[in-house]
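Lab notebook, bench 4. Still working through the backlog of constructs that have no structural model yet. Next entry is a single chain of 210 residues. Request: give me the structure tokens for it.
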Amino acid sequence: METTWVQQIAGALATVGYGTALGVLRSVATQGKTLKIFAAEARPVLQGARLTSYELSNDGFDVTLVPDTAIGISMQRGMIDRVIVGADRITRDGHVFNKVGTYQIATLAKKHQIPFYVAAPLSTFDFKTNWKDVKIEERSPDEVRKIGGRQTAPPEVSVFNPAFDVTPPELVTAIITEEGVLRKPFAPKINTLRRKLSMNKRKEKVGPVA
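Model written out:
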């Protein structure tokens, strides 16, 4: 049995149909491989607990929900064979923006020599923006000060609550897309992908030759 750690992967509830990162797991399952999946709870909004674990369980996967703070010990004990995450944006040099917590998972995976994969549709790629120019949204402080509407921290305490973080390309093993798997070095591969997509768009505009 192969074990996979996932971080708030995108399935039909977040996208449509087959899903993105969840689609990769579904594809592996159709090949007859048995997977045991560990899903991060993804605090503070708990998308992993509320959405990811539901979709995985509903699809019949053997899934275990794990607190974000137990990521390290799960890897330390050899419970994880690979990590698969989604992406909200991938810049031209391979920096991956995803749900906050992804960077720490990637760092721990590197420490424990665990492959770290990003599954992302072509629409995720930002071929123009430098990763340093991407502004990360900060969400409501009350998502951290409260749990289920109940106050759990002093109402006046300052809160840092970023919605996303950025994982540098050196921590990424490969990026899985509809056009195939991209491996290091990412920048030239992403540039080739950009040119291919641009060429396809030009062909669509011209249309078939009569």
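Notes after review: Helices lie at 21-30, 47-58, 71-76, 102-111, 142-145, 186-206. The two ends are 54 Å apart (CA to CA). Flag for follow-up if needed.
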